[in-house]
Amino acid sequence: MTAEELRELINREIDSDLSPSEQRRLAQAVRRNPQARRLRAEMKETAAALASVRAAEPPVHMASRISAEIRSRAAASVSSGRRAPAPAGGRSMWESFSATVFGTSFVRYGSVFAGGLVAGALLFMLVAHPEPAPSVAGSAATGTLLAQSQSFPVNVPGTQGTVTAVSTETGKELTLRLNCSSATTTRLVYDPSRVKLENLSELQSAGGPVAVNNGVVEITGTGTQKCTLLFSGVRDSKLSVLIASSAGGSFHAEVQVH
Amino acid sequence: MAETSDEDLVRQCRAGELKAFDLLVERHQKTVFNLALRMVRSGDDAADIAQTVFVKAYENLERFDPQYRFFSWLYRIAVNESLNALEQKKRFEGLDGVDVAAETAEEKDDEALRQERKVQAGLMMLSVDQRAVIVLKHMQGLSYREIGQVLDLPEKTVKSRLFSARQAFREILKRKGSRRNDRRRAS
User: Fold this and answer.
1) What does pLDDT average to in each consecutive run of 10 residues of chain A (258 residues)?
2) Domains of chain B
3) Is A63's Cβ below 8 Å from some Cβ in B?
């Protein structure tokens, strides 16, 4: 048996992939050859080390965050006229709001116009605001805010903007300033076990939180909103801000570290 | 009562049932999270990757080919997203993800935790291609064929890559073991 064959048989033994005759061949080789015995023992030890790694539990709120994001995307795709899986049963608050704000006439007659505006706005963002470069996917704008003051002007009528604030230093406080113009819904998504949100009363005065539940704060309002809130989180904790605005809406988010 | 299959849930979701997608998330979130975690090591990054994976899966459900298993498709997205995240991190930080942080007090008291940390550090020293096959085989328990579907590779290539990866990992563990013995002798 060549060294290459031996290596293959040992590996396939680890994967329980040997036929009875191959098992016999390997057993024979191992009996006769001390090097083969050592290699086999080491490979088994390696496999055992890999098998010893326990599966980690995902963050408690991961599934609810994903669910919130999926619903936001579904609402956005409805507003842009794309076919989107719509729930057959009851609608969430977010979906109801989207249906109200992005009424069918807007979807029907405004989608072509809005599409042009979206493309123009995204192009504007890429050209006029190269630092930090927001990665643009579909109709959403995403930016990661690091330790210094950054602003993300997003002016995308009829669609959504997403800003993620990341605390890069333990125990630091971030101020998030949102300035949203007419008919805007803002959804803040965070992990309450890692992030503490304060100044929610500011949001009340800016239109009032519709829901504060499991790390999701949802605010709706017409007219200009301006609110300041604080959130403190452990290192690398995140707060995502999802904004949906009707035609003509604009949004500006700014995050500062104190 | 039999559990609804992934494929049925995908069909329901395509028909507009968002709740069906919630079930898919619930069912696969742990494996997707763990796959990403072992690829990139950071829990926060893994959670972000998992979210991106499910969002992409949702947005591309129409492209899912039901002749394959749903989880294979999901894992393929997860591997690709993990590779993207590693690439981005490398670009921004200029690091290759090699763990250099000191052992925590908690780890000193917990042999299992220390072993896990050693294995994870070893995984990060493999090439991303090798890491992917090791994670899919040993942490996700996929067959050669399933790994081939996830990574879009012939079974033969999966086997040879897996065997080389194990060999490389064994060398890494041996080096780590001998370094540790040297430190013990020195102290």
Assistant:
1) 90 92 94 92 92 87 86 68 42 33 33 40 37 29 34 38 48 50 56 63 54 59 48 56 49 48
2) 1-97 (1.10.1740.10), 99-187 (1.10.10.10)
3) yes
Residue B4: predicted pLDDT: 86
A56: contact with B, CB 8 A cutoff: yes
A56 part of a folded domain: no
Residue A57 lies in a domain: no
CB count in 10 Å sphere of residue A176: 21
Q: Which residue has the higher pLDDT, B21 or A206?
A: B21
> Residue B119: which of A50, A57, A86 has the nearest Cβ?
A50
Contact B139 A66 (CB under 8 A): no
Between A228 and B43, name the one with better pLDDT.
B43
Q: B33 to chain A: which residues are within 8 Å by CB?
A: 56, 58, 62
Q: A41 in contact with B at a CB cutoff of 8 Å?
A: no
| B 47-76 residues with CB < 8 A to A | 47-48, 50-51, 54-55, 58-59, 61
Task: Give me the interface pTM, i.e. the ipTM.
Answer: 0.81
pLDDT at B131: 95
Would you call A47 and B138 a contact, using CB atoms and an 8 Å cutoff?
yes
Q: Say if CB A193 and CB A61 are below 8 A apart.
A: yes
Distance from CA of A232 to the nearest CA of B (A): 16
Is residue B135 scored above 50 in pLDDT? yes
Out of A15, A32, A51, a domain closes at A51
Q: Rounded to the nearest 5°, which phi and psi values hold at A90? A: -65, 155
For chain A, how many structural domains are there in total? 2
Q: How far is the alpha carbon of A223 from chain B, nearest alpha carbon, in Å?
A: 31
Q: How close, in Å, is residue A125 to chain B by CA atoms?
A: 21
Option in A69, A88, A236 nearest B17 (CB): A88
| B80 inside 8 A of chain A by CB | no
Reported pTM: 0.59
DSSP string, chain B: -PPPPHHHHHHHHHTT-HHHHHHHHHHHHHHHHHHHHHHH--HHHHHHHHHHHHHHHHHTGGG--TTS-HHHHHHHHHHHHHHHHHHHHHHHH-------PPPPHHHHH-HHHHHHHHHHHHHHHS-HHHHHHHIIIIIT---HHHHHHHHT--HHHHHHHHHHHHHHHHHHHHHHHHHHHHHHHH-
